[in-house]
Specification:
- With 1506 residues, the protein is mainly α.
- It is built from 68 helices and two strands.
- Strands 1-2 form a two-stranded antiparallel ribbon.
- Helix 10 runs antiparallel to helix 11, helix 11 runs parallel beside helix 13 and helix 35 runs parallel beside helix 37.
- The radius of gyration is 38 Å and the shape is globular.
């Protein structure tokens, strides 16, 4: 279960996505999967498939996919593509038709049927699950396009649409089934065989029209039918209604209907004439007043359902009171049995009806006056105008009664809800605290809040009833004039048609200006026109009574306020294109000024938002380059800001930008915009918490999907806040405060509210300080301690993110929080200084308080920038881009009139510069320098600046792009003559009969085939412009042109792409910018960051055919050392992101162990770069080891050892082979290492952090099973990744559990003392399978590094597991994990050595007598070799007899190491060839840094050693 989602309503919002995926992974649908390589190639083909390259992709797919793979291909297309990517359906159909494989198309159709069958098995879930309905609609549309649209019939045995609709009607499933059927029938639009009036299609459309006319049908279902009719160019009024629903009825409380009526009648056949329908409706209207009274009573009775055992006592206590607003109020109020106050003092129960009565009386007069006045005035004007030619005054009167009751009730609820909540809270507090029996007010706030929430709906229902009664009386007097006019007309001239002279005047503009369908006509209104007013009976007034057991009950479960308007269920998953123009906010609709219904606006916003979400989940945006301005003092980029930047960089005409622009228009066109804002805000609030229930496997080089979804929802909330102003902020604070337990402590959501300014910062300050000062009693919620540790830990993390990292606020903005933190830290310091024997603080609380102390120091030392705090949001960035685009359009218009910016002039300038820089062919460089000198450079510069070529960013882009293109063309064209001469030389060499000479000539010809004069001139021109303009901006624009040209040519040329010219130009720029120059040194970081941004765009994951040049560039001596030596290590995150991209690119090759030549060469270069980092910048590898090890596949033992062997420069490692080394006495062992990784964000997936925190407090064994299940991957992802486990999530879990225990513990956490952390480790070690246990133990071994608290703790964890486990397999796998890292080539991490030495040396572990040590002679020799390498000794077992068992390490003797057989590994370093490249050799061994370090080119890892 998802605690956060349950805490905010339990509705299936986004959480349904995982359920849909699991359904589509059903065993019935599984087919044999081809090899992983083929799967990856197919996915790459579909990822790059567009309409323009269909033929090319068809050829590629045909070359790699055989007929045996067709079942899997069909399943992949339907599940992963058609179900999610509706916009690509036509492209996929064209693609498969051009494959010319009829059997494959038949397989695709049958697979679609099978997927729909599986999904419809869980159709009840689809009724409440957004994602389930979206997938059904997408597959329905796909089925219609591949069958009906191609003149192929549906197979009745698989999909009988008519029977499906009838079954759905009788079982309340139309919400899921009807949109599916409508989407299937949209295929008829392109069909020649199934268009109307084909009987099959006509029969289905008649049934849909009959369903459309069902009383009280949800508006979104009616809308689906109307949209289908529009697609098929059919008027719904022209369709003949079938009689298939006669005698059928929906189930009680059907979600397909807009309200749950107490009694439902069978659907009757359509009656004869319009007048009879109007008369029948008029007869039904007469019960309006009684219905309103009964509805209020039903709501009141429902609200009083929890009264329970206190009903009798309350009634008796209040029997003597007769001044209540209604006599039986004591019987209707709600007193929850969980309130212990009334169990101890039952005579105080009379306070509840008294407080409710006083609160209602306090607000009712103002609410009644305002609501009745507005509703009666509005109703009178609307009704008298619409019924201007209606002769029957009874119809007029009943229509007015229907409308005024609905409008008045809705207005009353909107007006009274919040004032009544405040009034209830005030009166409950006054009456309870005023009682003589109450002396302690601790906990009264929760009681008052609970009573107010439980009785709010009752008060609203009573106020609504009073308003409706008053409005029904007043409306009769308001329309008495028009009623009398009709009676007089009928008495005087019964044969003359009636018309109201106040509205119908000869030659007046109204109503002649109205469309024909809306224009009043003489005589009675038609039934279709009367239906507008009849539908007021289906609008549940105020939404308070609507499906009380559904939405309102779910909200009441958490205390969230019910939405103050009635809104039928919105059409989730509909795209913006499916919404009519009037709902999309088109200019025509705005000009007409039409007010939209709230449900239409909710449906439009929700549909657009879900379309954006589906696109984001299916294809996450690429990760943006790191912005140095957002790093501040942290050595880590922010995932939320990265997601914000990436989303704001999406196309301005894309789904996200379009939706955010349309939301304010939709809201402004709605008649009740505040109500719509609150409805949408509640939905988004729930979705925010549902995001964390998603299983996420990170995709390399993309943003975090979780943070991307949060940014989308925050951006929509910000747009909604523009209409609701401060009201939305107050609601968000209330909803946050009402979430029970630990689920409220979500750092990303609260920090997002702060950054988007959705909540007043003063309210956030007050709320967080209240949470910290509260003391819950339940240990599961952090109670029972000296502080509220979960709340304080949450506040510390939130302030770290909002104040220190994102700089959205400053410390001065949260004075109450700072005061509470300072007070608690002062108490803790005083306790520590007192040196008391026992501390009142637990280790967890001590760790939280130490973090709070550090936070206070950092905030106090923080220097606020001159421009104050900066709130980076998606909307603000999009607004900046829109303004920039508008400026570009103006500049483009000006450039079109100015011929000075023509391409020819730019080329002439570049040619002039080229000749000036390189000189004519007949002149030497000295002649050129004498002829031009600095004056010539100045002349070119003057021409460029005076011509306006660099006056703005767009002009710079154009100038550099044209120059770059021309330089690249000249690079290849200028080498023509030289290539011909070289070719003749090669032919001559071949004629001489010397193959070696011919090969050498070929190589020389290839080297000389490019002329780099043009690119050298271009790079020098860029440097020249940088010196006389804004250096950073000029460099960024030049690099942007180079990157664009490189990516375009790399994609177009494919394997034949030549990377040398681009490498040359980038290397030139690096060299020139890195040369000693005061102009460049002042902005060193900004210039290097510009190169980082370019390298980020060109990383091998995006441009694989530039990989070798890219690796050479990022490891160049003019880039890597300069970036890593920037002050305050601000360049480290930039290089870390580049190194992570390199490792991600290598992972698929390294996972297969065997490398082809090109991958082997690239891997060798990566290893050499890591060796340089190990020697020159070891602290860099220390800080980021977690993120690197998180990526490396299991076989890469040697690279992992290399990374883990790094230790700080200022540390001298103790000799691990020293006899009697006391590790726990080392001073370094008490220092915690710096972890710069997003492991906490990873841990939020599936709410795993919540589970761990829960177990740390409750020790509930069921939580451990949930933790074990959550670290497993779904079946499809496990097949793609070739592992059953989510390794990043497992690593984050292990690190969090270990750090959580060791924080605040003076002994750095002793596993021998037990504790919840060790219980989690032992449970996982015993209950995971072999693969899971191996990954788990390997993750522990990743923390065995240089001396620090983590190394010590996790070493003790392994040493505790070994003797205390009951499973020999656990001991064997522990030994395997340690041994395979030791038999690899050096270096070896210090912590790994001391752990293994302790294991084999300490007799308490009895290592040498375990069976796996002596299972085979070669294994025993391997262990003896390792023992000799680690201890300088070997094991003498030649003289051991049967009595030798158990002596273990007692028989260690000083004997030489036995010889190893050929090919057997030994822990000795191989010969170390020198490093070639830009860096000096780093061959240094021995001393403080000589523990196992061998610097040089390492041998490649083999299958045996990893």
């Amino acid at each position: 279960a998802n605690p956060a989602a349950a805490a905010v309503g339990g509705a299936l919002m986004f959480g349904g996505a995982a359920t849909v995926d699991s359904l589509l992974n059903d065993v019935e649908l599984q087919v044999e999967r081809p090899p992983v390589g083929i799967c990856d190639q197919v996915a790459a083909i579909f990822n790059s498939l567009v309409k323009d390259n269909v033929d090319q992709k068809v050829a590629e797919l045909t070359a790699i996919v055989t007929q045996d793979h067709h079942p899997w291909l069909a399943y992949y297309l339907v599940k992963c593509r058609a179900s999610k990517e509706v916009n690509y359906h036509p492209t996929y159909i064209e693609f498969f038709e051009k494959l010319k494989q009829p059997r494959l198309l038949e397989l695709v159709t049958n697979t679609t049927y099978d997927c729909l069958r599986v999904l419809l098995k869980s159709v009840d879930q689809a009724v409440v699950s957004t994602s389930h309905r979206t997938v059904l609609k997408n597959l329905g549309y796909w089925l219609g396009q591949i069958t009906l649209a191609r003149n192929k019939p549906l197979k009745g045995k698989h999909m009988d649409l008519k029977s499906t609709l009838l079954d759905a009607f009788e079982n309340g499933r139309l919400t899921a089934v009807l949109p599916l059927v409508c989407k299937v029938l949209e295929g008829v639009q392109k069909s020649k065989a199934f268009k109307m009036p084909v009987p099959w299609t006509t029969g289905l459309m008649s049934l849909l029209a009959e369903i459309h006319d069902v009383p009280n049908l949800r508006t979104n279902l009616m809308f689906e039918v109307e949209v289908l009719c529009k697609h098929l160019d059919v008027k719904i009024s022209d369709l003949q209604r079938s009689q298939l629903l006669v005698g059928r009825r929906p189930p009680p409380g059907s979600p397909d209907l807009s309200r749950t009526a107490e009694q439902r009648t069978e659907v009757a056949p359509a009656s004869g004439g319009l007048r009879s329908e109007a008369e029948a409706w008029t007869g039904r209207v007469g019960a309006t007043e009684d219905d309103a009274t009964r509805a209020a009573a039903v709501a009141a009775n429902a609200a009083a359902a929890g009264y329970g055992q206190y009903r009798e006592s309350v009634y008796q206590s209040a029997a003597q009171r007769e001044d209540y607003i209604i006599p039986n109020l004591p019987q209707l109020v709600t007193i929850s049995p969980s309130i212990t106050l009334f169990q101890m003092l039952p005579h105080l129960a009379h306070i509840v009806p008294t407080a409710v009565d006083r609160a209602i009386k306090e607000v009712i007069s103002a609410v009644v006056e305002r609501s009745v006045t507005i509703s009666c005035l509005t109703t009178r004007e609307m009704v008298t105008k619409d019924f201007a030619m209606e002769p029957d005054e009874n119809v007029l009167k009943k229509a007015a009664q229907l409308m005024v009751s609905s409008v008045a009730g809705s207005l009353a609820l909107v007006t009274c809800r919040e004032p009544l909540r405040v009034s209830l809270t005030t009166h409950f507090w006054q009456l309870i605290t005023g009682s003589r029996e109450i002396h302690d007010t601790t906990g009264l706030e929760d009681i008052v809040h609970r009573l107010s929430t439980d009785n709010l709906e009752l008060g609203c229902a009573l106020i609504e009833k009073a308003v409706v009664d008053r409005a029904l009386r007043d409306i009769d007097s308001s329309i008495s004039g028009p009623v009398e006019a009709r009676r007089e007309q009928r008495a005087k001239s019964p044969s003359v048609p009636f018309y109201d002279t106040n509205y119908i005047q000869p030659n007046s503009r109204w109503p002649q200006a109205l469309p024909q369908i809306l224009r009043p006509k003489p005589g009675p209104l038609s039934a279709q026109q009367l239906k507008v007013y009849k539908d007021f009976t289906s609008i549940t007034v105020g939404g308070a009574q609507e499906e009380h057991t559904g939405g309102t009950a779910n909200l009441a479960a958490t205390g969230l306020s019910a939405t103050p308007t009635a809104s039928p269920a919105p059409t989730y998953g509909a795209s913006a294109a499916a919404v009519p123009p009037a709902y999309r906010g088109d200019e025509a609709a705005e000009a007409q000024g039409d007010a939209l219904a709230p449900e239409a606006v909710v449906s439009a916003i929700t549909g657009s938002m879900e379309a954006v979400v589906q696109g984001l989940v299916g294809s996450p945006p690429l990760a943006p380059p790191i912005d140095t301005a957002t790093l501040y003092t942290y050595h880590l980029s922010d995932l939320a800001l990265d997601a914000c930047t990436a989303l704001a960089s999406l196309p301005l005409d894309g789904e996200l930008a379009t939706m955010l622009q349309q939301v304010p228009r939709w809201i402004s066109q709605c008649a009740h915009n505040e109500a719509v804002v609150l409805e949408m805000s509640q939905q988004i609030f729930k979705k925010l918490f549902d995001v964390f229930s998603m299983p996420q496997v990170p995709i390399p080089d993309t943003i975090s999907v979780m943070h991307g979804l949060i940014e989308v929802y925050m951006a929509v909330l910000e747009k909604l806040r523009e209409r609701a102003k401060d009201l939305l902020g107050n609601y968000l604070i209330t909803w946050l405060d009402e979430i029970p337990g630990l689920s409220r402590y979500n750092v990303d959501i609260v920090a997002g509210f702060v950054r988007y300014n959705l909540i007043p910062i003063s309210g956030v300050d007050r709320l967080l300080s209240q949470w910290m000062e509260s003391r819950p009693r339940d240990p599961a919620f952090g109670g029972g301690g000296a502080i509220n540790a979960p709340a304080m830990d949450f506040v510390v993390a939130t302030l770290q993110l909002s104040v220190l990292r994102q700089r959205a606020i400053s410390g001065a903005d949260v004075p109450e929080c700072m005061e509470v933190l300072t007070k608690e830290v002062g108490k803790y310091n005083a306790c520590q200084n007192s040196q008391a024997s026992t501390s009142p603080y637990t280790p967890q609380e001590s760790g939280v308080l130490e973090s709070a102390s550090l936070l206070i120091e950092e905030i106090q030392a923080l220097v606020v920038p001159p421009n104050g705090t900066v709130r980076q949001t998606v909307n603000s960035m999009l607004a900046d881009r829109l303004a920039e685009a508008a400026g570009y359009q103006e500049d483009a218009a000006a450039d079109a009139k100015d011929p000075g910016l023509s391409r020819e002039i730019i080329l002439d300038i570049f040619e002039e510069w080229y000749i000036m820089y390189n000189g004519p062919p007949d002149d030497g460089p000295i002649t050129i320098r004498r002829r031009f000198g600095s004056q010539g450079y100045g002349a070119v510069l003057q021409t460029i600046t005076s011509g306006g070529f660099i006056r703005n960013d767009e002009a710079k882009d154009r100038f550099f792009r044209i120059c770059c293109e021309h330089a690249m063309q000249r690079t290849f064209l200028d080498a023509g003559s030289a290539s011909e001469d070289d070719g003749r030389a090669a032919d001559a060499a071949a004629t001489d009969g010397s193959p070696d000479a011919a090969a050498a000539a070929d190589r020389e010809s290839l080297a000389a085939s490019l002329n780099f004069n043009a690119v050298d001139a271009y790079s020098k021109l860029v440097v020249l412009l940088m010196k006389f303009a804004d250096k950073v901006v000029m460099l960024k624009r030049a690099l942007k042109s180079i990157v664009a040209e490189l990516k375009a040519n790399a994609e177009a040329q494919g394997p034949s792409f030549n990377q040398r010219p681009y490498f040359r130009i980038l290397l030139n720029l690096l060299t020139d910018v890195g040369a000693p120059d005061p102009n460049f040194e002042r902005e060193n970081l900004q210039l290097l960051a510009a190169f980082c941004e370019a390298f980020h765009e060109l990383n091998p994951l995006r441009v694989p055919n530039f990989a070798f040049a890219w690796l050479e560039l990022i490891s160049n001596r003019m880039f890597m050392p300069r970036l890593l030596m920037v002050k305050n290590q601000r360049g480290w995150p930039l290089f870390q992101s580049l190194l992570v991209q390199l490792l991600h690119f290598l992972v698929p090759f390294l996972r297969s162990v065997t490398l082809h030549d090109s991958a082997r060469l690239l891997y060798k270069g990566a290893v050499r770069m890591l060796l340089v980092l190990l020697h020159d910048f070891p602290q860099f590898l220390c800080d980021y080891h977690y993120s690197f090890c998180d990526i490396m596949p299991t076989p890469c033992v040697q690279v992992r050892n290399l990374i883990l062997s790094a230790f700080p420069w200022n540390m001298k490692l103790p000799d691990p082979f020293m006899p009697n080394l006391k590790v726990d006495l080392l001073p370094e062992i008490r220092a915690a290492p710096r972890i710069t990784a997003h492991y906490m964000s990873t841990l939020l997936q599936l709410n795993l952090k919540h589970d761990v925190d829960t177990y740390l407090r409750t020790r509930d064994k069921r939580v451990l099973e949930a933790i074990k299940d959550k670290i497993r991957l779904p079946r499809l992802e496990s097949l793609e990744l070739e592992t059953k486990y989510n390794v990043p999530l497992m690593n984050a879990l292990l690190l969090y559990v270990g750090m959580h225990l060791s924080q605040g513990n003076s002994s750095a956490g002793q596993p021998g003392q037990g504790g919840p952390a060790l219980e989690i480790f032992m449970y996982l070690a015993h209950n995971l399978d072999y693969e899971g246990r191996y990954l788990f133990l390997g993750s522990i071994a990743n923390h065995l590094r240089y001396p620090n608290t983590h190394t010590h703790y996790f070493s003790l964890v392994l040493l505790h597991m070994f003797p205390n486990t009951r499973d020999e397999a656990v001991r064997e796998q522990i030994t395997r994990v340690l041994l395979e890292r030791l038999i690899a080539h050096r270096p070896h991490p210090w912590g790994l050595l001391i752990t293994f030495i302790e294991l084999i040396k300490n007799r308490q572990y009895d290592f040498w007598n375990h069976s796996f040590v002596r299972c085979a002679p070669e294994v025993e020799r391997l262990f003896q070799s390792v023992a000799y390498t680690c201890l300088g000794t070997t094991i003498d077992r030649q003289n051991e007899g049967p009595d030798a068992a158990g002596r273990g390490a007692d028989h260690i003797s000083e004997a030489p190491s036995p010889p190893l057989e050929a090919g057997e590994a030994r822990c000795a370093p191989p010969p170390a060839p020198p490093i070639h490249g830009h860096h000096a050799e780093v061959a240094r061994a021995g001393g403080a840094r000589g523990v196992g370090i061998v610097c040089g080119a390492l041998p490649l890892e083999s299958a045996g050693s990893g």
